[in-house]
Specification:
With 244 residues, this protein is mainly alpha-helical. It is 79% helix and 0% strand.
Amino acid sequence: MKSTVSPYRYWNGFCEGIPIGLGYLSVSFGFGISAVGQGLRALEAVLISMTNLTSAGQVAGVAVIAAGGTVLEMILTQLVINLRYALMGISMTQRLDARAKPQWMRMLLCCSLTDEIYAAAVTKPDTIGPGYLWGLMTVPYIGWTAGTLLGAAVGAILPPRLESALGIMLYAMFLAIIVPPMRRERGVLFAVALGAGFRCVMTYVPALSRVSEGFAIILCAIPAALIAAVVCPVPGEEGSHDSN
């Protein structure tokens, strides 16, 4: 039976968040360079990181801004890319103890929820308190914001060629994220290949090449995910539903 009082405190979370924060520092450095390279000011890039804390969403959002996209495109793009955080937030609220009962506190805690923070928190065998989560989020938030500031500052003074070379860091991170699951799971490989194929079609077919960046992401990602879910369902998923 799980304990009703969390043994994890702010300092425990702070220490566990240091490796995540160091990783975010290097990744957001690439985002800062990329954002400045696409026409944003350093302050704008930092404000985006301070209020979003989502690498894929920020990269896609800056692309929509740079392409002159509409507010509707931005909303739909962020909804598609960041929908998983809603599911993580729902799951996380089930692990919080009574001290995080106020709805405003739960909403605030979920604002800084990322894949890595969620993974570190859900592995705890007991319920967790808000203090632990605040500590776990502190260093990643600082690292993400500071890395963006450093990248934006450096990107503003670098020669264009070197700026473009360093901007590849962020895309290398995305490859590092998707390649391991692609090697393990056929469904992920199929979804990625299908999405890439759709994007190539939209790039090189004249009638589709005029679609803006934001809608292009949506029109490629959603069909690819739906088709992959039908063609390559998760093994044992039906059995798990039946058992419940």
